Amino acid sequence: MVIGVDGRCLQDVPRTGVGESALRLIQTLARLDSRLNLAVLANAYRDEVPLRFSEKNIQVMQTRIPNKLLNASIKFFHAPALDSLLGDIDLFFAPNWNVIQLSPKQKFVLTIHDLSIFLYPEFYSPYSRMWHKKLLDIKGLINRADHLIVPSTTTAQDVQKLFSVPNEKISVIPWGADHGTKHGTWSMNHKTPDRKYILFLATLEARKNVMGVIAAYEHMRERGIGLDADLVLAGPHGYGYADIERAVQRSPHRLNIHIKGAVTDEQKQALYSRASLFVYPSFYEGFGLPPLEAMSYGVPVVASGAGSLGEILGNSALLVQPYQVSEISVAMEALLGDQRLRDLYIQRGFLAAKKYRWEDAAKQLLGVFERVVDKLN
Fold first, then answer.
1. pTM of the model
2. CB of 33 within 8 A of CB of 365?
């Protein structure tokens, strides 16, 4: 079987959670079955990051068309059909929604990570809202797709509610988590605090409630608790970052708050392995990889129960209301100061993270591909 893959989401710099999950799925699929061939569509124009894979059954097909020109051509002229750029394929797989045109009879599986752009548009820039509304025909993509992949039951319910999609057209395939160790051997040559620290690691944007993290940290310190713990905010800048930066600069505890920006895989592993606590009070998630990753490194987690987080994390994290700063603060205090509680959530976290494996996700995804191809032949 030959699967065409829209690899454009892998070329975002820095790579987001969507790109990371797409990359892991593609690599794991290729390693799962050497008879499976993956033709990955990429854009090699100017500043786009070239894609390279070590797996022999992954072939990258690079266009020389600027993304804006490609999107405009598809939008206004309905050409080119992306599958035609990949040769003879059995199925076209989109790891994320994008501007897509396909041949009329081409089999198509689409991934929807979340619908936050529709549920919480205030967390997105005017440009992003315009792009999704004017250029990206999400309803058209959903109707065109032969099958949809979502990472959580929460996202499946959102898709059904907003777009009236029948249940049988959707498969819930939870993503995997990178399984680490608390005492890893990764290089520590990037600068992290010598003191213990509370970690937030994801895109630094409004939707992730980073402002709530900062406020909860300040609230905790003002009560004389956690004075030996710094706060580390790591991840690429997103919409609302300017407010986050100003909040840190104005904080009476700004010397104890460290903004790291985007980090490499090695730096991410080191940050997880040394953290005393991970905090993630996001307003909405379609899945939520960072808390699971932190758990796999033996880090206790405070997270909101919003979106899919309550579904995915269950009782493995101390769940809070994202709009209640005092609740976030008290939960942070509890997991920093109560060793018995820390041990309980560390153990629960390890067990929870082990349930989510990229190999399992890839096997389920391959099963969907096979059913779609067999059904439509």
1. 0.89
2. no
